[in-house]
Design brief:
The protein has one domain. With about 200 residues, it is mainly α. The chain is globular and about 50 Å long. The protein has seven helices and no strands.
């Protein structure tokens, strides 16, 4: 297995923390008129929003974290690392193309969908088919987490359609997507620390 540097734990571990800090801090600036259960994260990063700069900074930091993690996660398959890095680029683009305060934006929506899709499929693309693969880079866990992310995306669309708790659904799925790279990094480093078994002498 290729060596994964320890700093990947920092870049991947900071991603979910920065995301939560971003939407929590931006919501504080918005005040009680913002409802995190029904309103999306994009509302916090929209032009004119009181917490615009907080959410924008969080998106930029999140994108940088994903790019760094994709670079250092050498145990993962190249296709998965490219998809993870693409998700990082999408996070940067979301920050640079915020939704207008008056409503949705086709460019913002397209970038957000692209980012969600890349981060939803990268676990499966990152699978290492060798016997020595860390558990998070094996097929079964990758399929399970991809299915969970897809279900989260369907839940979000359902809540958006019925004008329900879209904010809750979005936060759950984006947190899961930001957390999984850290889980993969931990499994890789744990596998590297495990001592090799010595052959039994007869």
């Amino acid at each position: 297995m290729r060596v994964v540097p320890r700093w990947v734990l920092v870049s991947s571990g900071c991603a979910p923390v920065l995301l939560i800090a971003g939407w929590s801090g931006a919501a504080l600036f918005e005040g009680p008129e913002y409802d995190p259960a029904t309103q999306t994260i994009s509302v916090l990063g929209a032009y004119g929003a009181a917490g615009y700069w907080v959410m924008t900074t969080a998106f930029l930091a999140l994108g940088a974290c994903h790019l760094l993690t994709a670079w250092g996660l050498r145990a993962a398959a190249t296709a998965g690392r490219v998809a993870l890095g693409g998700g990082g680029v999408a996070a940067l683009a979301v920050a640079l193309l915020p939704a207008p305060s008056s409503g949705g934006s086709l460019r913002h929506g397209a970038v957000a969908v692209a980012g969600f899709t890349l981060l939803a499929v990268w676990p499966l693309l990152a699978v290492d088919g060798t016997a020595a693969a860390p558990w998070a880079l094996r097929t079964a866990p990758a399929v399970a987490v991809c299915a969970l992310m897809a279900a989260g995306g369907a839940w979000f669309l359902f809540e958006m359609h019925r004008q329900g708790n879209a904010g809750v659904a979005e936060r759950v799925v984006t947190f899961l997507q930001s957390l999984w790279p850290f889980v993969v990094a931990v499994s890789c480093l744990s596998r590297m620390r495990r001592p090799a078994r010595r052959p039994v002498r007869e």
